[in-house]
Design brief:
The chain is mostly helical. The protein is built from 19 helices and six strands. Strands 4-1-5-6 form a four-stranded mixed beta sheet, with helices on both faces.
Length: 927
Amino acid sequence: MDMVKNEWKKLFKNKILLLSFVVILFIPLLYASFFLKSVWDPYGKTGDLPVAVVNNDKPVDYNGQTMDVGDQLVTKLKSNKELDWNFLSKEDAEQGLKDGKYYMIVTIPKDFSKNAASVLDKDPKKMELSYKTNGSLNYLGQVVSEQGAKQLKSEVSAEVTKSYAEAIFDKIKESGEGFAQAADGSGKIKDGLVKSQEGNKTISTNLKTLADSSLTFKDGANTLEVGLKTYTDGVNTAAAGGDKLNDGVSTLAAGVGPLKDGVAALDGGATKLASGVSTYTSGVDTLAGGINQAYTGSTALSDGLNKMNGSVPTLASGITQLNNGQKSLATGLDSLVDGSNKLSAGLKELDGNLTDKQGKIAQLKQGMNDLQQGIDQLNKSVNGEDAALAKQLAALQKSLSDLQNGLTFIKSNANFDAEAIKSKINATAGVSAEDKQKIIDAIQADLDKETQKSATQVATVEQLQSGLSGLDLAAIQTQVTELQTGVAKISAGYQAVHGGTNEAFNSIHQAINGSGSQTLLGGANQLTAGLKSAQAGNAKLVAGTNQLNSQVPTLTSGVGQLAAGSANMENGLSQLNDGGNQLASNSGALRSGATELQGGTNQLAAKVPTLAGGVNQLQAGSSQLAGGLNQLSANSPKLVSGVGQLADGSSKIADGSSKLANGSFQLGDGLTKLTDGSTELTDKLADGAQQVKDTKATDKTFNMIAAPTKLAHNEYTHVSNYGHALAPYVLSLALYVGALVFNFIMPIRRVSMEGQPAYKWWLSKLSLGFVAAVAMALLEGGIMIALGLRPDSIVEFFGTAIITALAYMFLIMLLAMTFDNPGRFIAMVLLIVQLAGSGGTFPMPLTGWFFNLIHPFLPMTYSIYAFRESLAAGMGPNVYSMSMLVLTIIMIACVGLLYLSMSHLKKRHDAHESALDDNQKLMALEN
């Protein structure tokens, strides 16, 4: 502590240094107070800012009133204290702006009022209020002047809008009177419409009555026209019919005589018809008997053919077995021939060959036996089926003959009876061809009933005939004969083969049972001869088998055709049998009808004289009727023409009266709507007139229209004036300048005592700096409060000032102690950088990117933040705490680094490497 005390003793003993120390303490105060007070409240003294006003406006007439917007504006500006308004001529104003006497010229043009009055023109013109500024005189003055010009523009707009509103309300008042007059006129229109509506109702009622009457008249005329046309058409038709009736009656009268003769002839023909019908029914009975016999024979034939057709597969199977046996026989014979040829080759192999041949011989025997059984079965089947088929064919031929005879009888009798009746009627004299035809049709109606019933039987017989004609019986018998011949050949061939085979078997047995080589050789020769005979017989057997195989498909086809034809014939005969029975059952009805026909013709002949008398009377009446109808038909066209004209006229009257009535009703609807609309119009006009009359416009109304909005400003924090806004920046800057001057003036690199350790030297300089920084902070803060600065928090305000002063003091002391004058230069550069990058004047978003980049790394940035929070409390407690923490860290870091620096300098001094005490000595020689 001795060195600290000694440091302060030397300070107090050196009067110049002590005076410098005291003056340095007031440097921040002087800097801050003079600077802030010079710009403490510049916006509060805008009324002292001179502005020139030039009024060139000419008044105009607007809706019967004089509009002088320029003069009114001058009057208002004379009472306006926001700027120092000076009303001059154009020349004086320009000269004053040039001389720097005025900061702005506001010019009101000569057509200012004229343009204001053009608001209702087709092409309205805006009012142009021009102003001219001199920014080189003072830019802030230009900004303030521009703000005044803009406010002036708003006031002019409001004043002109007020004039517009007054004019509009005057017109509304006039229109209210017009609404009242229009309401009176509308009431008169309503009265007239009511009277028109009543008259229209009367007209519509009468027109409706006329239209209804016209429609009734039109309908009656149309009905008359239609009825008359129908009447005249009927008259014409009746006249034509009367003529035809007269002609027909005449013809009828002329034909009554021949009719009498014809009826007599018809009576005779009916008698002959009854006789022919009896003959016809007898033939039908005969036909039915023949059909029954044919049906019985066809049934037997069909059964036989079915049996024969069932045996054909057995026959084919036997032929197949025969063919297989033949193949086995041929194989055995070939083996035997080969063996006999090899027999003479050597006796040594005789036993083995004979043993082998015995197996072949046994196989051959078995095949021969199978062949014999097949031939026997085939021969039996062919002979048996041939006998049955012959019987059935004979029965079938007899049935067909009877059937054909019956069919011929039916057709000939039916044609004979019909033609006989027709010839008898046609031969009747005295009857017209038309009457003959009617009689024939009446008789034919009875005959057609029987003919229609027999048509089915005739068709069935013809179908059966067609089926039988398709059967080739001769070909079938021929095929059977060929089959028998083939079977016979097969049997003969088998016998030959069988005989040769037996001879071969005997020779083999003899050779086996004999002794000696001669016996064996003879047996071998006999064996060879027997085998050759067997081969010849086998050749015949092959020929017979082939012929039999070639005939089997023909036989199968023929038997199938016989069976199918037999089935068709059986079905046809069944249907024919049913038809014959129906003919027989209906013969009685035919005979009864013929008898009734005969009785009817007798009655007809008795009534003919009475018919002749009635026809003569009918002829006389029909002549009179035809004359009257012809006269009536001749007068019909005139009557039709008159009624047509009447109908056309009535239609036109009805259409015209309907259109007139509809139009009258539409007119009535329109008058009703018009009356309702007129009533509503009268009421609305009266209401509108009353509303206009009740509307009272005052100066408040006009002011509201001219300036309908009001700007409301709410402050998050309150900053009273420009001085308070700039105070954080100026106070921080002043403290930095004070610390910089202190380290320039005070001999901080000197020691107050020699031979002391470094830390004592550090404590002695630290005490000077600490006391100076705290004193500058307290003086600056206290005097600024006395001059009108109003902090939000006194504690935060003084705390910020003290921490800021200490941080700046030890930062600059570190630079000055470590680097001497270059360090002081660095401190000056840091001051310049902080002036631009700390954000003390304008918001950082309005500055360049470089200054935004260095802003977070400058100590003054955090000092300004802390001062702003202490003065206006708008930054928030977190920002204040962070700022104070950063400044404290800077202070502590600089104090620590200062100790290290001074320790290093002390070591160099002790090593005589530097002149620590004489580096600032006046007029000392530089090293």
